[in-house]
């Protein structure tokens, strides 16, 4: 089967692409822009009226939201072992982190990159930006503390949650005053381990080949 992924560099679609690579699935990329000054294509808006990517299409069915796409793909290709099954004791922990990443950490990033959406007057935008930075630091510390001495987000087991963690660390920006990933030693350790995987090196352009 072939998937179609609405895609842009620097977006959450990169994480979905890594998952597709890890699952050894064929796919095609449909280029979109995440520049707010560039109109979204009618095709994208028909699939996701919000105009956000990623959007994954298969057999005429479209899914958006990175966490939902990730879970759906892992369940559909369960033999790859990227996510615990429904009866696995680790299933709840896996879903917990995917939801935490998508609803809490991504929201804090949006406060930083799209701060005008979180205030009703220009004079309050700077306050939103400042809060986004402190919020990111708080949330990444929660993750760092939770990892502890574990190898991965699910203990000894690598999963798509680790891919999601890595993707989000690439959004940390010195230009926006974000905390550096080096402040969170356990997060950094997992991010570096994920970055060495062939799928990530391919998608993020760090493969020397």
Textual characterization of the structure:
The chain has 8 helices and 4 strands. The chain has 209 residues and is α+β, with helices and mostly antiparallel strands. The protein has 2 domains: 2-82, 3-Layer(aba) Sandwich (Glutaredoxin), CATH 3.40.30; 91-197, Glutathione S-transferase Yfyf (Class Pi), Chain A, domain 2. It has a 4-stranded mixed sheet with strand order 2-1-3-4, covered by helices on one side. The longest helix has 23 residues, at 91-113. The two termini are 27 Å apart.
| Counted beta strands | 4
Quaternary status of these chains?
Answer: single chain
- Terminus-to-terminus distance: 27 Å
Radius of gyration: 17 Å
In order across it, which strands form the biggest sheet?
A: 2-1-3-4
Share of residues in strands: 5-15%
- Give the C-level CATH assignment of the largest domain: Mainly Alpha
Q: What CATH architecture of the largest domain do you see?
A: Up-down Bundle
Coarse shape: globular
Q: Largest sheet, described in full?
A: 4 strands, mixed
Helix/strand order: EHEHEEHHHHHH
- Give the number of helices: 8
Number of domains: 2
Keywords, separated by commas or semicolons:
4 strands, 2 domains, globular, 4-stranded mixed β-sheet, alpha+beta, 8 helices, 209 residues, single chain, Glutathione S-transferase Yfyf (Class Pi), Chain A, domain 2
Write the layout of secondary structure elements.
Layout: E1 2-7, H1 13-22, E2 26-31, H2 42-47, E3 55-58, E4 61-64, H3 66-76, H4 91-113, H5 125-147, H6 160-169, H7 185-195, H8 198-203
């Amino acid at each position: 089967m072939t998937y179609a992924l609405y895609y842009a560099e620097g977006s959450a679609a990169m994480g979905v692409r890594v998952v597709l690579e890890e699952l050894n699935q064929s796919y095609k990329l449909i280029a979109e822009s995440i520049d707010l000054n560039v109109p979204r294509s009618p095709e994208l808006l028909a699939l996701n009226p919000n105009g956000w990517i990623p959007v994954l299409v298969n057999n005429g069915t479209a899914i958006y939201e990175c966490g939902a796409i990730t879970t759906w793909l892992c369940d559909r290709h369960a033999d790859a072992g990227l996510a615990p099954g429904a009866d696995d004791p680790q299933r709840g922990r896996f879903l917990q982190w995917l939801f935490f990443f998508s609803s809490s950490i991504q929201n804090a990033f949006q406060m930083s990159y799209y701060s005008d959406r979180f205030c009703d007057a220009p004079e309050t935008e700077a306050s939103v930006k400042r809060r986004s930075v402190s919020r990111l630091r708080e949330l990444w510390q929660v993750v760092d503390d939770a990892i502890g001495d574990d190898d991965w987000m699910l203990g000894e087991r690598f999963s798509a949650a680790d891919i999601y963690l890595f993707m989000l660390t690439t959004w940390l920006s010195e230009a926006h005053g974000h905390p550096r990933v080096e402040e969170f030693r356990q997060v950094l350790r997992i991010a570096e381990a994920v970055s060495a995987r062939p799928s990530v090196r391919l998608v993020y352009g760090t493969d020397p080949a």
